[in-house]
Amino acid sequence: MKSTSATICLLFLTAAVFAQSPNVPAIIPLPQTMELRDGTFQLAADTQVYRDAGSRATANVLTERLRTATGFRIKTGRILFDSEAIPGGILLTTKNADTNLGPEGYELTVATNSVVIRAPTQAGLFYGVQTLFQLLPPEIYSTNLVTGVAWQIPCVEIKDWPRFPWRGFMLDVSRHFFNKSEVETFLDAMAMHKMNVFHWHLTDDHGWRIEIKKYPRLTEVGAWRKEAGFGFDPKLTTAYGPDGRYGGFFTQDDVRDVVKYAAARHITIVPEIEMPGHSTAALAAYPQYSCTGGPFEPSMTAGIFNGIYDPAKEETFQFLADVIAEVAPLFPGRYFHIGGDEVPKDTWHKSADCQALMKREGLKNEEELQSWFVRRIEKIVEANGHSMIGWSEILQGGLPQNAAVMDWIGGAKEAASAGHDVVMTPTAYCYFDFYQSTNHAAEPKAAAWGGPLPLNKMYAFDPMPTNVPPGLQSCILGAQGNLWTEQISNLKQAEYMTFPRACALAEVTWSAKDAKNWDDFMRRLKIHVQRFDELNINYRHAAVETPEPNLIN
């Protein structure tokens, strides 16, 4: 094959060079390296997919999408030998892969008569397949047969791997409930963007969303409230029970289904069970574990002022241990999120029992009491086979020995300096509930206490804090976007708030830092949103139609 350059034989292009080339494929996130060549591979009715013994599931992902959109009855065959390429075929294999690519890296070679995706692991193969889809016309994402499309793939050589191991998205299902199918819609979109951690915010003051068999009132009472609240038109949401109450919950079987669905897309789910604060919904069901005895009610107004567990009662820890013992086995990933943010410590300050506990344990203040509480919970989490992660506030009073920190208001350097892992999720860059422009009247209702967070600001975000020394930077696992749903009551609004900002986050967590190019990102995004159109994913059209200025230094 000839090079596209008239002056050299093969033009090797890094991502930074590609940013200046208008004819480069519109791949998001941008691969680490690509070599663009002349010619195309023609997908046809007689194209076959070949795979090795361990790559059946990945091959099925590929053939299912190809068959649906093209109508071609593409067959799959197993290879029993090592092969570099098979004429007329698409080969998926982990044999002879370059282990230097890491556990999520891959190589993709498209020639005029063959396609080869090779990776050390199935995760890498899966990401290679996602890139292959983006080399095809956007109509490949159609859920129906599409005719009149030239199903051609440009000849290219790609070597790709992620910058960070944690590329996450958090969905809050407590404030407004999103059902299993809606959660899976987000998992599909994450997979498309090579995002690999889904943080599932399952409990808060406004609703308890996971079945606990030993404590049925958590869902009988805590999963429901009188109305949708937050000033919403009741018709904007459909999450109502037969009795008219608003809410819902996931059975443990539902959770198993979602975990399996995510795993098939190489996404790990991190569950969050909030404690010691943000616990009004739980205490509405079991007020005996509070400092005051209630009454409590899961609502849109109750919250950080009184929804807090009583650490002076041993029964509180038994209750939480029982809950964790039921939740932890449902999630095979490493981390279990315990929240830990915005604890209303005035409640503890006014509690004689809490003050007596502090005196017995030699605790100087309520911050140290919170640390004492979190340390006890860490032991329970670890006894159930997980590592604990919590919001920035778990640093208050001293960080537990093995905990990881999700930094939303600071603490990354402090945690990393002590050898703790950190996930970056600062409000200014990662809160997808913030307005997307300063023109609030033109946007759906959103969080008005911060922001705005327009697309160009999201793209300018660097997950690596500037104050973390090079020797500690390996503790920064990556970043995630958070969609808090106080003001978001249905799937289409949730999608609007997430996309295309999640596209930018995917790129800043996957692609090389020095490859960032705002103009090229927007060029690719204009094609990428055509894929959203095929998938019926809602997004903020104005972000694409009226690009913002470049904020990258």
Portion of residues in beta strands equals: 15-25%
State the oligomer: single chain
> Structural class, judged by helices and strands?
alpha/beta
Supply the number of helical segments. 18
Major sheet summary line: 8 strands, mixed
Label the overall shape. Answer: globular
CA distance, first residue to last residue: 38 Å
How many β strands by DSSP?
A: 20
pLDDT below 50 for ≥5 consecutive residues: which ranges?
A: 1-20
**Spatial sequence of strands, sheet with the most strands:** 1-2-8-6-7-5-3-4
Radius of gyration: 25 Å
Percent helix: 25-40%
Mean pLDDT: 93
What does this structure look like?
By secondary structure, this protein is an alpha/beta fold. The protein is 31% helix and 18% strand. The strands form 4 sheets. Strands 1-2-8-6-7-5-3-4 form an 8-stranded mixed sheet. Helix 2 (56-70) links the parallel strand 3 and strand 4. Helix 4 runs parallel beside helix 6 and helix 8 crosses helix 11. It is globular and about 75 Å long.
Short note summarizing the structure:
The protein is α/β, with parallel strands linked by helices and 553 residues long. The chain contains 18 helices and 20 strands. A hairpin with a 2-residue loop joins strand 6 (106-111) and strand 7 (114-118).
Pick out its properties:
553 residues; alpha/beta; eight-stranded mixed β-sheet; 18 helices
